[in-house]
Design the sequence.
């Protein structure tokens, strides 16, 4: 993780890749769920363009592949991705479902933080990690983009 290992290096929701900060990418339909707090200072992080409600039916997940969190503290063990996302959907305070697994995707670890600091792109051959950021639906689109940020 190197220069990106500090949890707030890119502020809330900021993605650190090789020391550079950016916001989560737009969805496949072009919806931008995040914007820079200050475009001149990307390390200040990103803010949501639409505030999350507690109504699970109004949420979807923005998948960001090859990305992890500087701190991974597992809330659920031996679960699959769908179970991880469902657990986040049912928890109003959950902001993202972080899923990590080694060989077997049906037996992974799930972290459900209530606050999101910096995210980190990575290249790791020992485990797979994806982040599913909970976003407020702004259209009737239920399946949001799959984004690969690998260098």
Sequence:
């Amino acid at each position: 993780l190197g220069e990106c290992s500090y949890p707030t290096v890119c502020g809330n929701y900021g993605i650190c890749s090789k020391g550079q900060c950016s916001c989560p990418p737009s969805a496949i339909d072009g919806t931008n769920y995040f914007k820079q707090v200050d475009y001149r200072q990307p390390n200040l992080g990103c803010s949501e363009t639409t505030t999350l409600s507690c109504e699970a039916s109004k949420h979807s997940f923005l998948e960001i592949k090859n990305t992890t969190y500087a701190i991974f503290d597992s809330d659920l063990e031996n679960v699959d991705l769908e179970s991880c996302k469902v657990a986040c959907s049912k928890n109003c305070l959950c902001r993202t479902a972080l899923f990590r697994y080694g060989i077997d995707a049906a037996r992974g670890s799930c972290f459900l933080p209530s606050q999101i600091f910096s995210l980190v792109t990575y290249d790791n051959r020992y485990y797979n990690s994806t982040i599913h950021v909970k976003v407020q639906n702004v259209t009737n689109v239920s399946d949001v983009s799959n984004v690969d940020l690998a260098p």
